Amino acid sequence: MKIIDKLYDRVEKLGFVCVGLDTSMDYIPDSMKDGKSIHDAIFAYNKEIIDATKDVCAIYKLQIAYYESYGLEGMLAYKNTLDYLRSLDLLTIGDVKRSDIAASATMYAKAHFEGDFEVDFMTLNPYMGMDSISPYLPYLESGKKGIFVLLRTSNPGANDFEVLKTKGEELFYTIGDKLKEVNDNYIGESGFGPVGLVVGATHSEEVEKIRKRYDKMFFLIPGFGAQAADSLNVYNLMIKLNAGVVNSSRAILKNWMNFEDGKTNVGKYAREKTIETYKEIAKNANL
């Protein structure tokens, strides 16, 4: 089974939530840090989140910056978290947003699609051009890996460049159209290909046009949760509650902080927030 079909199947069975393991030491209760190294504390915290949510989410996303910030200890936690997820046959996104010339991109592909930091999907930045994307294609052709490329992001500065006009349309549509051409070469049984797009849910006037235009591309949807994107926007970026995964990181990871007994029930409250996230968005199907 191709990795994109596996993701589609997971969303069908477990829902569209992507749990973001963007773990900071500040998020971890003191009781889980006392006497532990940075690596051990982060991994123990991640493991509790994973064990509590693995049957109510489709995939896990690890933002590598959080781990890099702690040096070798952090990267060991990153590796061991990925190893643990793989041992449970759970799907992973390495949120690394790489972009470089072809020679360097080849090495990035090797680093994150093989070896210690292997993931199922990577995030990429397309702004250096298509030759920065092409080194990943052999992995896509195999059906074993996928990518999510930045298209329309949810951050406040997204309008600085993404909406600049080129050929009468916003720049991000030019990028999306080029990626669509690549994706169409690798369509799986689910009707989707392994070239996905990162599409934020904070631009309500654009979501339906983007979804219709890139109907065979899977979306990674940030912005719901801490960034407070509207649930209807998120719903409109999917197709029948599939064709996309909705990332939530801080809202899930820090939910224990909202409860008096949270310090001893990190996993419980992460699970509750994951389920709540699904319900809040899925309710739009009945409107």
UniProtKB/TrEMBL annotation:
The keyword Lyase applies. Its EC number is 4.1.1.23. It catalyses: orotidine 5'-phosphate + H(+) = UMP + CO2. Residues 16-269 form the Orotidine 5'-phosphate decarboxylase domain. Pathway: Pyrimidine metabolism; UMP biosynthesis via de novo pathway; UMP from orotate: step 2/2. The active site is at K97. One of its GO terms (biological process) is 'de novo' UMP biosynthetic process. It holds the Pfam family OMPdecase. GO terms for molecular function: orotidine-5'-phosphate decarboxylase activity. Transmembrane segments: none annotated. Keywords: Decarboxylase, Lyase, Pyrimidine biosynthesis. It is an enzyme of class 4 (lyase). NCBIfam families: pyrF_sub2. Belongs to the OMP decarboxylase family. Type 2 subfamily. This is Orotidine 5'-phosphate decarboxylase. It comes from Anaerococcus lactolyticus ATCC 51172. The lineage of its organism: Bacteria, Bacillati, Bacillota, Tissierellia, Tissierellales.
